User: Fold these one by one.
Assistant:
Number 1:
Amino acid sequence: MTSAQLARPTRKQRVRTLWVSDVHLGTRDCQAEHLAAFLKRYHADKVYLVGDIIDGWKLRSGIYWPQAHTNVLRRLLTMSKRGTEVIYVTGNHDEFLRRYSSLILGNIQLVDEAEHVTARYHRWLAFLGDSAYEFTLTLNRWLNHWRGRYGYGYWSLSAYLKHKVKSAVNFISDFEEAIVHECAKRGFNGVICGHIHHAEIRQMGEVEYLNCGDWVESCTALIEHWDGRIELYRLAEDQARQASLAQAEATSAEPVV
Ligand SMILES: [Mn+2]
């Protein structure tokens, strides 16, 4: 394959699973164009939406809904029509969707949490970070502390970092430990979540911890390939790779003197 073909893929890449979370459609920070472009590149058997897809809290206080946000929903509906199983793990910011779910979500499934079996026959739990604090006092304390203090409806890592770096680090480790503890207790090999806007793949004891990150700042997602390998996609790395391929292509196209 030539570098030109690599730089401009015309066919969709077939993958087993995609996971995205924390898109926050309905807010100005949402990177909807990038997400729509990302989704368009793949043909996936399953897509999991792991919480905070539409920001219902923000919508109540004034509508911000450009075409690009509609395009993301359209893309998901199109994928679902063409055979992709789209599973929407709902969360506290998406709660209002449950009331309208049959109306606007077509054949997208709404679930509290989802069990996913990878191609390697590992059982993964895809669920929302914000349901984890219901059974974890430590995390609950941090969330309530933070929410009460800054009056936000959802967790924003960057906003918090500006205020108190050390507490943010504690929050994240408490969050991860709470989730991993729950999964080990229930016999899962791994967990896939979102919520803290911090993408990661990390082994924590018996359990592999995967976080989808977000499409507000970092533009990250998780991709399961056909062999069961799970990749952490980062838009910035992808763009850098595309740029260097384009450069290599330009260089090789220069006339030899
Ligand atoms: Mn979020």
Note: The chain has a mean pLDDT of 79.
Number 2:
Amino acid sequence: MGDLNKGLYNKYQIINRETGREVEGDYFVLKPATDPAARAALEAYAEATNNENLKVDLFAWLETMPEFSECDWCGEPAVELSYPHMFDLAIGKRMCRGCWDHDREAYKGAYGEDIGPFHPIGGDKA
Ligand SMILES: [Zn+2]
């Protein structure tokens, strides 16, 4: 199961690099390179912080991230899209990883056919 519908849960163990120990308290991990909501949160944080060096660094980091494109199936923004798979050859259309993985499971279950793993155009960026 992917993360899309899981809600909030304790996904990551956070280790302090200086002490080598797990940190105490609650943390929230973001992956802005591939998650539009995470990128929006990071932009909001950069706007809100009083740490000017951090603000500059965060905006510089955001500048390096790939543009999002819209998936032709779900309409959601994604940094990685693939050409359609063999059972859905829509010429000129592009499919996100989530739609690909959904279709892969559906075709395995319904027809016993595996469309194979997601292969983003231009290679993996995540
Ligand atoms: Zn999609």
Note: The chain has two domains: 33-65, 68-126.
